[in-house]
Design goal:
Strand order of the largest sheet: 2-1-3-7
Helix content: under 10%
Structural class: mainly beta
Order of helices and strands: HEEEEEEE
Low-confidence stretches: none
Radius of gyration: 15 Å
Distance between the termini: 30 Å
Number of helices: 1
Mean pLDDT: 84
């Protein structure tokens, strides 16, 4: 695992994402409609379309596989990728195009 180098930049998503297929590309950005502060529904790729009884919780898991060369790219995403299957937490392997594992940043916002 390698630390982030100075100047490294990345985005997790695209503000223009509108379809389920587009959202699947960013499968580590999820939304949960909390029923109350102690219970919640399942995580969902789609932003809730109706009011939630309590609040919306957003979970953001940033990419963990780096290409080893580029600190940035025009879209701020091409130099970094998610594991091929599953997630960093589950030990998912990085794709050959992005073989170097970075630390995982995780944010949960309520």
């Amino acid at each position: 695992m390698q630390a982030f180098q100075p100047g490294f930049r990345m985005f997790i998503s695209d503000v223009n994402t509108r379809t389920k297929d587009e959202a699947e590309r960013f499968r580590q950005l999820t939304f949960t409609c909390l029923q109350n502060i102690n219970t919640c529904d399942l995580q969902n790729l789609n932003f809730p379309t109706a009011a939630c009884p309590a609040v919306i919780m957003t979970a953001v898991r940033l990419q963990t596989c780096w290409d080893g060369e580029n600190l940035n790219s025009p879209d701020h995403m091409a130099q970094i990728a998610y594991p091929k299957f599953h997630s960093f937490k589950s030990g998912g392997l990085c794709p050959a195009s992005h073989p170097l594992r970075k630390g995982q940043l995780f944010y949960e916002v309520i």
